[in-house]
User: Fold these one by one.
Assistant:
Number 1:
Amino acid sequence: MKITGETKIVGILGYPVAHSLSPLMHNAAFAALGLNWAYIPLPVEPERVEKVTPALRTFNFMGANVTVPHKQAIMRYMDEIDPVAREIGAVNTIAVRDGRMLGFNTDADGFLQSLLETGFSPRGARCLVLGAGGAARAVVFSLAKAGARAISIFNRTVERAAFLVDDISSVYADIRFSCELLSPQTLDAANNSFDLVVNTTSLGMFPQVDASPWDDGIPLPEAVICDLVYTPIQTKFLQQAASQGLPTVDGTGMLIYQGAKAFEIWTGEPAPVAVLRQTLLSVLKTGKQFSD
Ligand SMILES: NC(=O)c1ccc[n+]([C@@H]2O[C@H](COP(=O)([O-])OP(=O)(O)OC[C@H]3O[C@@H](n4cnc5c(N)ncnc54)[C@H](OP(=O)(O)O)[C@@H]3O)[C@@H](O)[C@H]2O)c1
């Protein structure tokens, strides 16, 4: 990559961001399309988040991705927020246009695209979402928007799941929502009443690779089993599913497609998805620790 006086700059705002894979993916994509753009890490401590938008404006950034812990805090500094990001309550992509800060959420679309490419459509499906954190919000809203019939949320802190159900049921009144404590008893009772199960907890993520949200000895429902965790790609949860012969979807697709959508928002060009995928997989295969 050659940085020149005309290079357009984007980056990733988060804390920490040193392990982010997004700079590698986006810089490979810019190079593949011959675009004079560069993507850099932008570590911002939580107490400095209000300084972000003046800085992006001052330095003529084209935009940025936003990751933990800023996805919600950044919203109040946007001039405009896309309806999807507003519904979810989080911004993961900023576009700077004529000095105005436009906020988007590409996680929900990224997740949906990763399911659709495996041939699974959430339309009419009964879905079980494990976890109720930031990623769960994007997953639940994308399933609802895609026409799921029923969505249950199981979380260690059941109040957080109840809060999410409250938020979403006011927008999607026709869908059946419920929440439960994530426990061996509720998992056991879940048996065959779901078509899709999604792990959005961080259980199973490197270095705790022997952890899973699903207790050993409890059979998984006859459903498509999806894990958002992608370090490692084959999590313990996905191995449990594979040992029961169930179809699985790993977390790499969501990471690739949320990045592709952000790339398209910034550049106006279709993202080279194959380049994003190849870059991501080649790094993940090294087994080092990374984050989104
Ligand atoms: N593939 C992708 O593109 C993508 C995108 C975003 C996130 N992710 C992955 O998704 C995971 C969650 O991210 P997030 O941003 O949603 O994090 P978060 O907001 O911190 O939420 C973490 C979730 O995990 C649960 N949890 C954590 N430790 C647990 C434990 N020991 N036992 C039971 N539940 C536990 C939390 O439950 P409590 O509410 O009880 O604390 C909460 O539901 C991470 O592994 C992240 O890398 C992947």
Number 2:
Amino acid sequence: MIKTTVLNYTEMEQNNMESRNEQWRIDLRNAKTPKERTAIPRVEMPQLDPKYRITCNEEVNQGISAEQAVVEASRCLDCANPQCVTGCPVNINIPKFIKNIERGEFGEAAAALKETSSLPAVCGRVCPQEKQCESRCIHTKMGHPAVAIGYLERFAADWQRDNLPQEVPAMAPANGIKVAVIGSGPSGLSFAGDMAKKGFSVTVFEALHEIGGVLKYGIPEFRLPNHIVDYEIEGLRKMGVEFVKDCLVGKTISYEDLHEMGFKGVFVGSGAGFPRFMNIPGENLNGIMSSNEYLTRINLMEAGRGGDTPVLRGKTIAVIGGGNTAMDSTRTALRMGTERVILIYRRSEEEMPARREEVGHAKEEGVEFKTLHNPIEYIGDDKGRVIAMRVQKMELGEPDASGRRSPVPIEGAIEEIPVDLVIVAVGVSPNQLVPRSIPGLDISKRNTIVVNEETMQSSVGDLYAGGDIVRGGATVILAMGDGRRAALNMAEALLAK
Ligand SMILES: Cc1cc2nc3c(=O)[nH]c(=O)nc-3n(C[C@H](O)[C@H](O)[C@H](O)COP(=O)(O)OP(=O)(O)OC[C@H]3O[C@@H](n4cnc5c(N)ncnc54)[C@H](O)[C@@H]3O)c2cc1C
Ligand code: SF4
């Protein structure tokens, strides 16, 4: 198992205890009884009306107000042994930032978040809190809804951005050592930020014409507006990080070129952007494409929104899969004016890996859910364009290796559904261009880069890696944590030379 934290456990506990024993925290804790705190209802996220929001790309979740944030923060019991922290993949000191919100010190709350997370405004919007920190909140054990940690994280980060000047953090003096980053997703950005803080000269090479990785080309603006990501990138620029766009490492320049350019260490955060298909008959018909292609055309190339890039449209679109990517594709299809959007997933809704909130939003917006169905064949017209799909009805059997009940076909239960566009969102794999171009690099059977679990160092001494290229498809917060841990260890190794 690859480690997720940057701090070790003792440091984390010490950090929690020190801040918890400050006088203002003790006074705040004593200001209300636990009974009073648990009696407060959980805040509701203000949202755009579903009928309106599918006509535009505006952010659906509008964010909670300062008044709502203070009340929500007062629900937190400031536990002595806060289990929420153990549920956070990078062990953010959650009660510390929440209690700062309760006392009205929103800037301090944002600073507490930044101690551990380099992208709190992003994580507050897209992290699956219901499976992480919030699932461990003491409230859930007492039969109450968890403290809305994600909403509060977003509030503090947004408040800081909207109210305080963007400050350059304390930086070590420049040490003259150059390091390169391949890929500008969350792993590459957090690595770049930490290395710049430690005094290194950092250059990020990105294949696309936009910086941000999946945060820009995958996750749609109605969930994560681009200006939130751009603000973080601007912060890195102010710290001296340089960005080279339209540069595909492995084609435009090679790994050897990076050495010739004087880079002493390389971090690979090239993600997992290689789409998977199901290899069923008819899958190469026109009108069947990967979610990656569909979302990139629309989000990055602005297809259908004034950009030159074309995108196929349909009256009835089927999206295959049950993850965040599938959900983003359905909701994007609605915003492209599609009359009927059907989500087809082979297990039941309970097993869907997508965030609960996304599933709820997709339903509110009118996506039809056809769970326990699996495509087995696509049918085309005489011009080779898809016109229908055959789906197999499934039932749930025994749990498989993932712990979820596996889907089993019900013999003879096959249905034909007319469709004119199909988006396949059944998973991704790491792109092999970078790994295969580096001699001696250890690559796993799943095509991920093999790293030392503690340090993120690969079999090639000066090369570290993290995020989806190592994990094969994970989450923003895990990618970010990997980048930070790689920075800690690469910096130590380079400075010891
Ligand atoms: C549609 C979608 C929705 C998602 N929703 C969520 C969510 O709600 N919550 C969540 O936590 N996670 C979500 N994820 C997963 C999350 O976005 C990823 O786990 C995360 O972005 C991985 O970060 P990364 O830094 O490893 O790579 P990426 O974000 O994939 O970035 C990799 C970057 O490297 C660049 N690159 C690749 N090869 C090269 C090369 N040879 N040279 C130069 N640059 C290169 C790519 O162009 C890309 O910009 C979602 C993913 C998708 C696709
Ligand atoms: S577990 Fe819940 S109540 Fe306890 S500190 Fe964490 S957020 Fe607060």
